[in-house]
Amino acid sequence: MLEVVQLECRRGDRLLFSALDVEVGGGTLLHVRGRNGSGKTTLLRALCGLFTPERGEIRWRGTPIAELGDEYHRDLLYFGHLNGIKGDLTGVENLRVTTTLDGERLDEQVLWAALARIGLQGFEDLPTRMLSQGQKKRVALARLVLSRAPLWVLDEPFTALDTAAVALLETLIAEHVAGGGIVVLTTHQDVPLTSGQVARLDLGS
Ligand SMILES: Nc1ncnc2c1ncn2[C@@H]1O[C@H](COP(=O)(O)OP(=O)(O)OP(=O)(O)O)[C@@H](O)[C@H]1O
């Protein structure tokens, strides 16, 4: 269970939101909505412990995330605006780095299979700077194929993806939610998010 309790976030002297209460249980997708600048990314960063709110608390399984530290980060997969991939490394090497940082040692063939699942057959061992924007995004999304983290926080994950990749990502999200995981995401795209239980949070309305 992820809980947001009386959260208040500001940027400079601008109040983005206050007294925000949200509870997200296992098997739920929370779609955070709102106009540009309403604070969606700020909220997602706060959920990951990357932004300190003015007031309130975020709890994971009943404990404030500030007290959990690494224990929380092992349970969390954050997919931010930047792909976080290194252009000089191949897709396989990038995936090796991110999974190792997540504390997993996976066989080479598992990494290749993840890249194949995400539609990158034939591009696995090219430096990722040679890939298109959508292909780079797919390399980053291959982490989701391998992730064991119960909580996924995804900021605009559908941007730059073609129709096939959007469908694939929807499937990965649906599988994660069906397995009892939690997904918190933002998207401005008109993507049918029908996996499991879907909750919606509107900011700035
Ligand atoms: N580093 C920063 N310093 C100061 N203000 C910032 C900073 N980052 C964001 N802001 C401001 O905070 C507000 C909320 O930004 P945020 O990125 O959370 O919005 P958003 O809802 O995700 O927007 P979008 O839909 O455009 O991605 C914006 O007005 C933005 O200008």
TrEMBL record:
Q: Which PROSITE patterns match?
A: ABC_TRANSPORTER_1, ABC_TRANSPORTER_2
Keyword set for this entry?
ATP-binding, Cytochrome c-type biogenesis, Membrane, Nucleotide-binding, Translocase, Transport
Question: What Pfam families does its record include?
Answer: ABC_tran (PF00005)
Q: Which GO terms describe its molecular function?
A: ATP binding
Q: Where in the numbering of this chain does the ABC transporter domain appear?
A: 2-201
SUPFAM superfamilies (UniProt xref): P-loop containing nucleoside triphosphate hydrolases
Which InterPro entries is this protein grouped with? AAA+_ATPase (IPR003593), ABC_transporter-like_ATP-bd (IPR003439), ABC_transporter-like_CS (IPR017871), ABC_transptr_haem_export_CcmA (IPR005895), P-loop_NTPase (IPR027417)
Span-the-membrane segments of this chain are: none
User: Known NCBIfam families for this protein?
Assistant: ccmA (TIGR01189), PRK13538.1 (NF010061)
This protein's name: Heme ABC transporter ATP-binding protein
